[in-house]
Design goal:
By secondary structure, this protein is of the alpha/beta class. The chain has 15 helices and ten strands. The strands form two sheets. Strands 1-2-10-7-8-9 form a six-stranded mixed beta sheet, with helices on both faces. A four-stranded parallel beta sheet has the order 5-4-3-6, sandwiched between helices. Helix 3 crosses helix 5, helix 3 crosses helix 8 and helix 9 crosses helix 11.
């Protein structure tokens, strides 16, 4: 299954079509994650709240989808020659999982401040890890430069049509799980924009009236700042519980225009709101999600007045959270 989309030819319709075609192939390697009603949250928000539980995906994150889609687009010779990526954890784990499934040699560049538990999980996969003492956005540029110099294929966590189409397979599953019923609004965490671009492209093709709301931590919201500026900008980020979405948007990323055109509204949430959302999911559903997923839950709670009476989906993007991070989140005022 070779890549069918060049960056220059990326449109929402083309992405949605590719997501539909690749979904069945991914099911050979990845499970379909549940779409379930969260009863207590539904009652609290006065809306029917359905949660896409990609925190239950293999590797604990939606990132397994895009990485596998990208690796499937390469020849075995290309895989064996070597592929490179940069990651704060979840994308790297998806990358390693794809290599384990299909074979090949991989290198993951990791910022030194990435969660220790995720780095440890990466080490257990056997991929080569190169740590760089800089922020996530800068590490992406270093990794891409290394791949170019060595003649290796670079896997962006979001700035790649195959990666975006792979993430969009989650929305293909959502449509199948809805079984012809409607959906008014969906909340999705936004870092580099790959997830929300893929999900929105698919959902808006089939549910054109759906409202797509992008959510980011106020401490680290590079995409939102870029959308507001009208071009990609770098922000001075502060630490956030949503470390899985941390980092500035890569210059020239195709996700900028996709987010600008597909995302209807944007929400910024505080660290206290993220921590409260994590506690709510644990207390009411007894499920463990990470900070990036907590951002989407927090955004839905922040917009309760706007979604009352609606049928709403929340994309729970990952469940890889360290005990120390969870303790910090739950202790927040």
């Amino acid at each position: 299954m070779s890549s069918e989309l060049s960056a220059a030819a990326v449109t929402p319709a083309a992405l949605a079509d590719r997501s539909a075609r690749v979904a069945a192939r991914l099911h050979e390697y990845l499970p379909v994650t549940p779409l379930v009603r969260f009863d207590v949250l539904s009652e609290d928000l006065g809306a029917e709240v359905l949660v896409k539980c990609d925190h239950l995906q293999r590797t604990g994150s939606f990132k397994a989808r895009g990485a596998l889609t990208k690796l499937l687009s390469l020849t075995q010779q290309q895989r064996e020659h070597g592929v490179v990526t940069a990651s704060t954890g979840n994308h790297g784990l998806g990358f390693a999982n794809a290599l384990a499934a299909l074979g090949g040699r991989g290198i993951v560049f990791v910022p030194a401040n990435a969660a220790a538990t995720k780095i440890a999980a990466l080490r257990r996969t056997g991929v080569e890890i190169r740590t760089r003492d800089t922020d996530a956005g800068a590490v992406e540029l270093l990794a891409r430069r290394y791949a170019e110099e060595q003649g290796l294929i670079y896997f962006s966590g979001y700035n790649d049509p195959d990666i975006i189409a792979g993430q969009g397979t989650a929305a293909i599953e959502i449509l199948e799980q809805l079984a012809g019923t409607g959906l008014d609004t969906i909340f999705v965490n936004v870092g580099g924009g790959g997830l929300i671009s893929g999900v929105a492209a698919v959902l808006k093709q089939h549910l054109p009236k759906i409202r797509v709301i992008g959510a980011s931590p106020a401490n680290d919201a590079g995409m939102i700042a870029s959308i507001r500026a009208g071009h990609i900008v770098a922000v001075d980020a502060a630490p956030t519980l949503s470390e899985g979405s941390a980092g500035n948007v890569e210059p020239g990323s195709i996700t900028f225009e996709l987010c600008r055109d597909l995302v209807d509204e944007w929400v910024l949430v505080s660290e206290a709101e993220i921590g409260s959302a994590l506690a709510m999911v644990i207390d009411t559903e007894h499920q463990l999600v990470e900070g990036a997923a907590g951002v989407a839950f927090a955004a839905a709670r922040a917009r309760r007045a706007d979604i009352a009476g609606e049928r709403v989906a929340i994309f729970s993007c990952g469940g890889n959270i360290a005990a120390a991070t969870l303790a910090t989140a739950l202790a927040a005022p």
